[in-house]
Amino acid sequence: MGFFASAGRMILSDGAGNAKLDTDEGYFIAGSTLTGTKALSGHTATQQNGSYTNVNVTTAHYLGASSSDATQVRGSFFVTTSDGRGLHNIGWFNAGGTYVHLFFATQPAVSAYAGYTFYVSGGGVYLQERVAMIAPPFIFGDSPALVRSITITAPTFQYNLFVGKFV
């Protein structure tokens, strides 16, 4: 084990010289925690008689306050849905980055995407919802009155977040 200190920097290394602690790397300092549950809405894209109602939604859902100098959100979340799609009831997941709840294409012209991101901005903590869905097209031979649709049911997020910054 080695120790090095110079000009406000410390490095602790193992016997092979691999740094195990380097104060120049920056450390995450959690200024606050936020725990709660957020239920979001489901979405449906439809097509009937050649009229399309597609979905293109980006929404920032406010979860709570944070310090004004916070820049990062870390922690965990748990997702449930009424239809069991996505990572429904599987376990707790890392809240860093974007969680892709649903992504698929059933035909060349049919697709659905739902992604969710926890982030901090201007003293607030948010869950950003990004959903884009294209309704199934009319298929030759279908009755024009037939309604074709694709649905993403409402997810509910339980979360335990640490809000802070790297110093």
In short:
It is built from no helices and 14 strands. It has 167 residues and is an all-beta fold.
Topology:
Layout: E1 2-6, E2 9-13, E3 19-22, E4 28-39, E5 43-48, E6 51-53, E7 55-65, E8 72-81, E9 93-94, E10 98-107, E11 110-121, E12 124-134, E13 148-152, E14 155-166
Antiparallel strand pairs: 1-2, 2-3, 4-14, 5-6, 5-13, 7-12, 8-9, 8-14, 10-11, 11-12
Structure overview:
It is built from no helices and 14 strands. A 4-stranded antiparallel beta sheet has the order 4-14-8-9, with no helix packed on it. A 4-stranded antiparallel beta sheet has the order 7-12-11-10, with no helix packed on it. It is elongated, with a radius of gyration of 23 Å. It has 167 residues and is mainly beta. The chain has one domain.
The parts where pLDDT drops under 50 for at least 5 residues are none
Please give the share of residues in helix. Answer: under 10%
Q: How many distinct helices?
A: 0
Indicate how many domains the architecture comprises.
1
Tags for this model:
65% strand; mainly beta; four-stranded antiparallel sheet; 0% helix; 167 residues
